[in-house]
Specification:
Elements: E1 2-6, E2 16-24, E3 31-40, E4 45-48, E5 51-57, E6 62-71, E7 79-88, E8 93-102, E9 106-107, E10 120-121, E11 128-130, E12 140-142, E13 152-161, E14 165-174, E15 181-186, E16 189-194, E17 202-208, E18 211-220, E19 231-238
Antiparallel strand pairs: 1-2, 2-6, 3-5, 3-7, 4-6, 7-8, 9-19, 10-13, 11-12, 12-19, 13-18, 14-17, 14-19, 15-16, 15-18
Length: 246
């Protein structure tokens, strides 16, 4: 069974939308009297007619099942929800699940500073807010101005992730190719690095595990030379489900 939330790439408070589940019989014989049931672990989500009966499903046949769900207008932004789907004909059974977040918790720097979240900004070579061609809106973040060789400029944040998910952001480079890098780390482990002259904005995302996590954006300079604007830009960070009080 494959989940598909129709009409939206996210779910928002006060919204009514459809959850479509594609069910396929991958066996070699017809199955009959199939009961399907969808549930959710959140009191902010209500499901209309959660039980659906499939009279039969031939071998290799696919059937789409659609459920209508409604999100409470008072649901908090960033609230994680887990949908569970169970299917059985009384003999065989199948289960699947999908996790979602109500609303989007993001950092787009449109406040013009670093006050939206509890950022740890390198005091020696701090990141700054820039209006130089941001990905969206009027502001983005940029690594330190006039950063010396053989130094790094770090911007990090410690967050309590409530369930497995992903973190995504847009980045843009203007640095010495293959020598001065933007490095992204989760809990100290380097996930990837980028360099280059005046690249365009590009999107990246990384899986994140539940629990306390430290996310770090680090602009590292080598022992000599520089190119371009000698910096990295980051914008529109979308966090996984997190404790927003943290």
């Amino acid at each position: 069974a494959v989940f598909l939330i129709q009409g939206s790439s996210k779910i928002d408070a006060g919204e009514t939308l459809n959850v479509q589940i594609d069910v396929m019989n991958v066996g070699h014989a017809e199955i009959t009297n199939i009961n399907s049931f969808i549930s959710c672990n959140s009191n902010f989500v209500s499901i209309s007619s959660p039980v659906f009966l499939l009279p039969n499903l031939a071998a290799n046949q696919q059937q789409n099942i659609s459920y209508t769900i409604t999100i409470d207008p008072n649901a908090p932004i960033g609230h994680p929800v887990l949908f569970n789907f169970d299917l059985t004909d009384g003999i065989y059974a199948h289960s699947n699940s999908i996790s979602e977040t109500i609303g989007v918790i993001d950092e787009d720097y449109e406040t013009g500073d670093f006050t939206s979240f509890n950022w740890n900004n390198d005091p020696s070579y701090p990141w700054i807010i820039s209006s130089n061609n941001p990905y969206e809106g009027t502001s983005c973040s940029r690594s330190a101005l006039n950063q010396p060789d053989q130094t790094d400029s770090k911007l990090s944040i410690d967050l309590n992730v409530l369930m497995n998910g992903e973190i995504s952001f847009y980045k843009k480079m203007s640095s010495e190719q293959d020598y001065d890098f933007l490095k992204f780390r989760i809990n100290g482990q380097k996930m990837d690095e980028w360099s280059g002259i005046d690249s365009d904005w590009s999107f990246v995302s990384f899986a994140v595990n539940q629990g306390m996590n430290t996310f770090t954006w680090e602009y590292d300079k080598d022992w000599s030379a520089s190119d371009g604007q000698d910096c990295a830009y980051v914008d529109y960070i979308v966090f996984p489900p997190i404790d927003i009080n943290n």
